[in-house]
Design brief:
The chain is mainly alpha-helical and 130 residues long. The protein is built from 5 helices and 3 strands.
């Protein structure tokens, strides 16, 4: 976990533009309920005055994401969800359809599913989810 005092000192000494914080997130999908330390994020956010980054954002419930954003998270990494949206769809359509040599056809539906996920995440991250 990120130590708030060390984070503050590191930001001052390095003059970085953003800080990735360790608050209980993990890369990949969670095997159980994520234990995100919002109290720690709040403390760090009060001590540093730069955008904060959340690694391991895939699979975190929307309400927790919204809270993280309200506490200073400005960038959320969701690569695992993005790759899964594309690859899971690719595997499903490959099982049921014969694309032959139509390469653009093979990637159309997976790309569409990945785009849907990105749109949902943008709406969630912007707080526009309906």
């Amino acid at each position: 976990m990120t130590d708030p005092e060390e984070a503050e000192r590191f930001v001052k000494e390095t003059e970085i533009d953003a800080l990735a914080v360790a608050i209980g997130t993990v890369h990949g999908f969670y095997k159980g309920e994520p234990n995100i330390r919002l109290d720690l994020l709040e403390t760090i956010s009060k001590r540093v005055n730069i955008p904060l980054v959340l690694h391991g954002g895939s699979g975190i419930p929307g309400e927790t994401i919204r809270k993280c954003i309200s506490l200073g998270i400005s960038k959320i990494n969701i690569c695992t969800e993005f790759v899964a949206a594309f690859s899971d769809t690719f595997v499903k359509i490959r099982e049921n359809e014969d694309f032959g040599y139509n390469v653009p056809g093979v990637f159309a539906k997976p790309r569409e599913e990945a785009q849907k996920l990105v749109k949902q995440k943008i709406e969630l991250f912007a707080g526009l989810r309906k």
